[in-house]
Amino acid sequence: MSNGVIIQAFGNLTKDPELRFSSAGKPWATFSVAVNEVNRTASGEKTEQVTYLDCKVFGDQAENLASSAGKGHRVFVEGKLRDEKWTDSSGNERRTKTLYVDELAVSLRWATVEITKTGNGNGGAREYAPTKASNGGDFAPAAPATEDDNPFM
Predict the structure, then answer these.
(1) Which of 47, 61, 76, 58 lies closest to 152, judged by CA?
(2) Is the pLDDT of residue 19 over 70?
(3) Which residue, among 25, 100, 19, has the nearest Cα to 57 in the 3D structure?
(4) Which of 72, 81, 112 is nearest to 8 (CA)?
(5) In a domain, 145, yes or no
(6) Is residue 50 situated within a structural domain?
(7) Does the predicted TM-score (pTM) go above 0.85?
(8) How far is 23 from 53, CA to CA, in rounded Å?
């Protein structure tokens, strides 16, 4: 991936990830993460600001995420912020910022997981897929995506 603004954030999935496949059969998933920032004013009043990050992840991480994490699960994402342009069904040009995820992990702040090794064909390097969270959810981070995993490059 080329240079871009690198973002790291913890947040909650706003809905279940949507898994898709490129015409070449490569997996990719879209999802959104809500990042909450809670502060207190000088008078002690609690204030909250929410930032939503639209995200894309590719390869094994996309399949692992889609099969094991869902709305409300707390995740860590790291990736490069990209500007995307497209034409909508009405012919209007649209733009959005999307985080192209390199690293994806579960937060253990309010959950526990069981870790199982996935078959990744990388010569014995360790890759883990947590399978059960104490809150009933599942999650499965994997190795960073490569340019070969990204059907848009």
Answers:
(1) 58
(2) yes
(3) 100
(4) 81
(5) no
(6) yes
(7) no
(8) 26
